[in-house]
Amino acid sequence: MKTEVLAMILAGGKGSRLGKLTQNIAKPAVPFGGRYRIIDFTLSNCINSNISNVGVVTQYEPLILNSHLGNGDSWGLDGLNSDLTVLQPFSANDGSKWFEGTAHAIFQNMDYIDRMDPEYVLVLSGDHIYTMDYEKMLEAHKQNNASLTVSVIEVPIKEASRFGIMNTDKNNRVIEFEEKPEEPKNNLASMGIYIFNWAYLREFLLTTHQKDGEMLDFGKHIIPSYINSGERVYAYNFNGYWKDVGTVESLWEANMEFISPENELNIRDRNWRITTKHRVSPPQFLSDSASVNESLIASGCYVSGDVTHSIISTDTQIGEGAKIENSVIMPGARVGKNALISRAIVGENAVVGDNAVIVGEEEVAVVGNAEVIGVCNDED
């Protein structure tokens, strides 16, 4: 059965700038917001945009990510007319095994895409925090009779050199693409979200791969080639909340913004639900010595300390006398008695011992996944 739109989520990123938080886990599987993982936002956007066939391309440390994705049932992607397929690197006829870039990952999975037979391929990143209606982008793609549409967002001009920048004409047609320019001409940054006409992209990838095998990345290679060959490439302006959580600072900032009920993500919007694979956990418990202010406390938590403007994730324990402020405590972590944690991220299943002090000053402090800082009393 022909598919109009197939979403391909690129979720193999190592996320090395997140340091300890991605030593044994793919960046899209990093916990976020108390009960979610980063990839949940892209997957939920697909479902809310009525896109029901999704391929997830994995590579680096995929074990936790694969377990989280399962068969897609948490997002309703396990029905008769819906599907979630995990696509891992494999040994191809040319001997290649690893995906060497974003375009190469699509090329390597051409057989899967052909089996789905889509008219359009929606290429997404699995490591951004945002809500977006892809149907509106597809509508603009069709109206422009585009061969490629790139979603863009305005960023502060002083930060534009960190991004791929789209220079457009008055009709939003892209006339030039600059990859991380030292002196950007504008502030329209690529979000790494693309809609391609599959028939043309397929032929383009096959031809260029047979010719030189160098078309490995969409930003560096494919988009400039499309523009130079006269293809109709358009920018789609996105005006909502979007966060690239590629650094510890940006991940911490996004979590802190997430606490506010006025956050642009509007997580409580019943018409645009963010769905995840839920842990089976008991209700949260706040002891008579607990004090919680302006914080998110997930299910399964036991809190006996003071928590201020922080996120306490699923199945976390906070000991008596502990003080948590402006911090993210990820799932399964334990914080001992009288510990002080401020402007920090404590990784999944980490242990912070009694009386430990973890304070971020110029930089956000980080405790790695399953890292042990001091010793907790087993009777806590």
Explain this structure to me?
With 380 residues, the protein is an alpha/beta fold. The protein has two domains: 3-259, Spore Coat Polysaccharide Biosynthesis Protein SpsA, Chain A (Alpha-Beta Complex); 285-373, Hexapeptide repeat proteins (UDP N-Acetylglucosamine Acyltransferase, domain 1). The protein contains eight helices and 29 strands. The strands form seven sheets. The protein has a seven-stranded mixed sheet, with helices on both faces. A six-stranded parallel sheet has the order 14-17-20-23-26-29, with no helix packed on it. Strands 15-18-21-24-27 form a five-stranded parallel sheet, with no helix packed on it. Strand 4 (53-57), helix 2 and strand 5 form a beta-alpha-beta unit. The longest helix is centred in the middle third of the chain and has 14 residues, at 198-211. The radius of gyration is 22 Å and the shape is elongated. The relative contact order is 0.13. Residues 289-361 form the Glucose-1-phosphate adenylyltransferase/Bifunctional protein GlmU-like C-terminal hexapeptide domain. Residues 7-257 form the Nucleotidyl transferase domain. Keywords: ATP-binding, Carbohydrate metabolism, Glycogen biosynthesis, Glycogen metabolism, Nucleotide-binding, Nucleotidyltransferase, Transferase.
